[in-house]
């Protein structure tokens, strides 16, 4: 049985006969007077002699690509006669022609075309225009009219492409040909084989204000029933969850600007008009939006074995999944909604024309990736109408646009009552966390959510609203609002919330700008904003202190994790990366007057001995950078002196003898193999070992050596059973030692200049 949405698409496909392009009945030469300044009236059919003269007036035609206008004879090769020189007298016939065109192209009643002469073109032998779309230069422009004057010529066909189909229109020898098409249709002029082809092109502007065309009552009933059935049936046979949306993809292309209820093209206009009436009947909201569709297909690279598949390099098999997202739409009143994120599953989408009949915007082939075999991703952009039950309006819109939800709740709280708003806010529960986490504007959202929480005054709802955020979003701009929050709900409540914001394991899953480390470096600014707040002063101070204490727990874990890296190089990089956060944390602690955190910092770092020296050094350098000139505060001084001691000890140690090949294996695994490895490495004279080992054991040792980036090569000699692992220490051991010594010396020197050594 067909799914309700398929029933809906099939009902709609019968709604309109509108074409995307059409050729009208040809006109007699005498019906059109074309005058060209300098040439006089053209005699129709245009003679070869006159065509040659026209050519003399022409310039190489230009074409638009994005913002530019270009001349490129490999794309468009034709002569353009300056339009100022041309005047066309239709002798009263134009209105009538435009009316037929409007009817064929399915303009709704109450609207019509107005034509503006755009250009006069002349194609001589070999000239052409590659496939392109006409840019909708004007808001009102929706279509193009090509008038081909009668001439003796072959070739030069005007070819229209729409929904995977090609329509070929030929000029006539003794009559005037008229072809109209919607501006989103790709079209081309094939090379002229002989003679001349002369055309006039017109931009067609949509005029008037179409009323909603009435679909037949029976059709509307059918559509409304399909819509209702769609929302009643489970999404898939195996689940009980029901669809939230129903989208119908349109056939024509639109820009954001051009997509309005009044300016739908051809068959879209009839389908959408019927859907609007059906949606109303089914008590659904309906919006008009631009969708982005990503389809993932199971595919393999075509080796040409299965016959010629012109232009296609891939053999496409099954659709694995389709995702559709809508971030811009216009509601039934025509108001725009931007920056939203409505996500639909493929069982919420239908269309008359499937995506596979359309040209994808882009596609990307991926070889075997593990989860699937080889896949081909295809992206499409299509206009769509989307419906949802009016009763679910708040939840649907809130999910797509969390900022709107907060604003809406705020206004309910202000205009009616906070209790009603809090009640409504509970509807957010099932999806709020997901909506917040996918939002691109989390910082602003956090501010709004805090404000709203205070207004609603309901601790449970506040928790629901605020929990999905992360500490990385909290900035100075939130200071006063945070103070109010604590005032309203108390500090125990707040500290629980902050625990969630930090995450239970301080796992920082953000990348780039949003990393925990980066946030920690902003801690002094955040604390100073909190300390500077003129509102809820006591609460703000409490918050600042608490954040400092909690941040140290977080940073201590990051330091621990960084120090555990087996490779000296990676360990150094990671620890150096934590220097700025460490400096920031100490500065923040000093600013809020916290004594305990600096004490813990010093103890923690000393516990690691020289392991965290790189972190401390970077912290000191950072402190100098942000606060040059002042005396060292005690915690910095204690750390600097401890590090100076370690460095001094390393520098004082005797230089490695040329005969000393001992290498220290960082602690980690202590299995019997690693114990043996450790003793081989520690041996000062043993440079090489041949070790017959089974595959798993060899791999374990590879992992250990590579993980620690030791100056030791490991090669498997594949003969005998088991194979033999050959380990050999390399000269790099000495260069690494020397580099480290030089660096220690330089660091020590720098600490001296700071009065710490
Ligand atoms: O000359 C024609 O038939 C069409 C020319 C065209 O496509 C254009 O000017 O955009
Ligand atoms: Fe064109």
TrEMBL record:
Gene3D superfamilies: q2cbj1_9rhob like domain. InterPro entries: Oxoglu/Fe-dep_dioxygenase_dom, Pro_4_hyd_alph_FE2OG_OXY. It holds the Pfam family 2OG-FeII_Oxy_3. Residues 114-206 form the Fe2OG dioxygenase domain. This is 2OG-Fe(II) oxygenase.
């Amino acid at each position: 049985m067909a799914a309700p949405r398929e029933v809906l698409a099939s009902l709609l496909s019968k709604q309109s006969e509108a074409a995307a392009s059409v050729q009208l009945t040809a006109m007699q030469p005498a019906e059109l007077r074309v005058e060209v300044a300098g040439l006089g009236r053209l005699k129709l059919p245009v003679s070869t002699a006159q065509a040659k003269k026209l050519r003399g007036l022409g310039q190489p035609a230009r074409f638009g690509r994005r913002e530019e206008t270009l001349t490129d004879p490999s794309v468009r090769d034709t002569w353009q006669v300056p339009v100022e020189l041309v005047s066309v007298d239709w002798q009263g016939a134009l209105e009538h022609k435009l009316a037929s065109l409007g009817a064929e192209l399915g303009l709704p009643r109450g609207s019509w075309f107005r034509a503006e002469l755009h250009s006069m073109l002349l194609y001589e032998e070999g000239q052409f225009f590659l496939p392109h779309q006409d840019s909708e230069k004007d808001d009102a422009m929706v279509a193009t009219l090509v008038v081909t004057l009668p001439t003796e010529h072959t070739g030069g066909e005007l070819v229209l492409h729409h929904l995977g189909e090609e329509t070929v229109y030929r000029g006539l020898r003794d009559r005037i040909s008229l072809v109209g098409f919607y501006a989103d249709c790709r079209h081309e002029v094939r090379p002229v084989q002989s003679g001349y082809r002369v055309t006039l092109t017109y931009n067609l502007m949509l005029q008037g204000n179409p009323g909603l065309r009435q679909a037949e009552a029976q059709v509307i009933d059918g559509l409304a029933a399909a819509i209702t059935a769609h929302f009643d049936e489970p999404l898939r046979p195996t689940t009980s969850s029901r669809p939230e949306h129903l989208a119908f993809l349109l056939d024509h292309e639109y820009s954001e600007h051009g997509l309005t209820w009044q300016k739908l093209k051809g068959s879209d206009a009839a389908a959408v008009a019927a859907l609007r009436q059906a949606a109303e009947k089914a008590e659904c909201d309906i919006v008009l939006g631009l969708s982005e569709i990503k389809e993932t297909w199971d595919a393999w690279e075509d080796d040409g074995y299965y016959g010629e598949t012109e232009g296609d390099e891939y053999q496409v098999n099954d659709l694995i999944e389709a995702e559709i997202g809508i971030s811009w739409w216009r509601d039934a009143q025509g108001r725009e909604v931007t920056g939203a994120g409505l996500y639909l599953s493929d069982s919420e989408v239908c269309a008359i024309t499937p995506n596979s009949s359309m040209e994808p915007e882009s596609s990307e082939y991926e070889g075997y990736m593990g989860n699937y075999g080889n896949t081909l991703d295809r992206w499409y952009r299509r206009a769509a109408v989307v419906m949802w039950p009016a009763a679910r309006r708040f939840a649907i819109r809130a999910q797509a646009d969390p900022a709107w939800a907060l604003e809406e709740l705020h206004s309910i709280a202000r205009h009616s009552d906070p209790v009603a708003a809090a009640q409504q806010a509970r509807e957010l529960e099932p999806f709020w966390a997901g909506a917040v986490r996918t939002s691109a504007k989390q910082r602003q959202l956090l501010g709004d959510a805090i404000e709203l929480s205070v207004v609603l005054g309901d601790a449970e709802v506040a928790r629901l609203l605020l929990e999905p955020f992360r500490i990385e979003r909290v900035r100075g701009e939130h200071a006063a609002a945070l103070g109010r929050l604590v005032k309203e709900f108390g500090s125990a409540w707040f500290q629980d919330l902050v625990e969630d914001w930090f995450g239970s394991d301080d796992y920082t899953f953000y990348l780039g700008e949003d990393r925990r480390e980066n946030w920690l470096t902003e801690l002094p600014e955040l604390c100073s904003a909190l300390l500077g707040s003129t509102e809820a002063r006591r609460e703000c101070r409490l918050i600042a202190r608490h954040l400092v204490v909690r941040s140290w727990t977080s940073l201590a874990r990051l330091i621990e994790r960084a120090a555990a890296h087996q490779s000296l190089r990676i360990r150094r990089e990671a620890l150096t990366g934590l220097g700025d956060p460490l400096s920031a944390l100490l500065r923040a602690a000093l600013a809020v007057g916290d004594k305990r955190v600096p004490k813990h910092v010093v103890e923690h770092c000393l516990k690691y001995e020289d392991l965290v020296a790189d972190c401390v050094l970077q912290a000191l350098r950072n402190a100098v950078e942000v606060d040059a000139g002042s005396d060292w505060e005690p915690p910095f001084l204690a750390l600097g002196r401890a590090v100076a001691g370690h460095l001094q000890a390393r520098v004082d140690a005797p230089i490695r003898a040329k005969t000393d090949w001992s290498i220290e294996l960082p602690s980690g695994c202590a299995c019997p193999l690693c114990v043996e490895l450790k003793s081989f490495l520690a041996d000062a004279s043993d440079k090489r070992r041949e070790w017959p080992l089974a595959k798993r054991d060899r791999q374990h040792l590879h992992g250990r050596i590579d993980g620690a980036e030791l100056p030791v090569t490991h090669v498997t000699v594949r003969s005998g059973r088991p194979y033999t692992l050959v380990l050999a220490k390399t000269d790099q051991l000495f260069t690494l030692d020397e580099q480290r010594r030089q660096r220690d010396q330089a660091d020590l020197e720098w600490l001296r200049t700071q009065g710490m050594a």
